[in-house]
């Protein structure tokens, strides 16, 4: 079993819809949680970063962490075609440096 | 804002050849990480350096070696290349702090193709 599980999709939603992307993890030592967006043939781009349970909002993006359930989510409001990409969750333990990634969810926003 | 720079962006080699990938971190960042991303796979951690010393090691083959130089740039050396080494190689950098684990910022990647 992988330490981080993420539904690979693909996920297609109409423009303007709310998108929910999710990851579960098994290692309770993970303390920091990131969401990266990766366009085709590009490097992962950091979207959100959080270390506490609860919600963190940045524009149209909301990152949600539930440490008790070992579950994190990324919500995208008012989705745009430019949001079409692969979204990777990533986690790291305090004091460690190695990011552990989910497999990524491929998202397509349909105009 | 300056980002992580990787060179070359594309590299084509034949089996058993050697390749060197370079990474220039964001200015003032002191930590560099290398990741390998195969087709359709998530990035896999290879190795990291903090203040020019190896700080963590992942699934890096013995045929690969890396180092961080005094100007904090890093090089990944890959010898006896195999077809399975064909992948995107990402470098990321961060600024280590004493109280938290800082976020990693990725470069554009080097696409290595082994023929």
Written description of the protein model:
- The complex is a heterodimer of chains A (111) and B (115).
- With 111 residues, chain A is an all-beta fold.
- Chain A has no helices and eleven strands.
- The mean pLDDT of chain A is 89.
- Chain B contains no helices and eleven strands.
- The mean pLDDT of chain B is 89.
- Chain A binds chain B through residues 31-32, 34, 36, 41-46, 49, 51, 88, 92-104, and chain B through 4, 31, 33, 35, 41-43, 45, 48, 50, 55-56, 58, 88, 90, 92, 94, 100-101, 103-109, 111.
- What integer value in Å does the Rg of chain A equal? 13 Å
Assess the beta-strand content of chain B as a share of residues. Answer: over 45%
Overall pLDDT confidence of chain A: 89
| Major sheet summary line of chain A | 6 strands, mixed
State the gist of this model.
Chain A has no helices and 11 strands. By secondary structure, chain A is an all-beta fold. In chain A, β9 and β10 form a beta hairpin.
């Amino acid at each position: 079993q992988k330490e981080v599980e993420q539904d690979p999709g693909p996920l297609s939603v109409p423009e303007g819809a709310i998108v929910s992307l999710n990851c579960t993890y098994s290692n309770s030592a993970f303390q920091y949680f990131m969401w990266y967006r990766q366009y085709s043939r590009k490097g992962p781009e950091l979207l959100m970063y959080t270390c506490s349970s609860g919600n963190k909002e940045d524009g149209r993006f909301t990152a949600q962490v539930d440490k008790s359930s070992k579950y994190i989510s990324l919500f995208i409001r008012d989705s745009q075609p430019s949001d079409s990409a692969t979204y990777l969750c990533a986690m790291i333990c305090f004091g460690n440096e190695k990011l552990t990634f989910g497999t990524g969810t491929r998202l397509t926003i349909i105009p | 804002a300056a980002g992580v720079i990787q060179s070359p962006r594309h590299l084509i080699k034949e089996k058993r050849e050697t390749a060197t990938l370079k990474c220039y971190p964001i200015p003032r960042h002191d930590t560099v990480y290398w990741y390998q991303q195969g087709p359709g796979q998530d990035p896999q951690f290879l190795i990291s350096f903090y203040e020019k010393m190896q700080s963590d090691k992942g699934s890096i083959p013995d045929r690969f070696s890396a180092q961080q130089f005094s100007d904090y740039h890093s090089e990944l050396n890959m010898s006896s290349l195999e077809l399975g080494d064909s992948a995107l190689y990402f470098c990321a950098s961060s600024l280590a702090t004493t109280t938290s684990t800082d976020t990693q910022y990725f470069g554009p990647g080097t696409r290595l193709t082994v023929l």
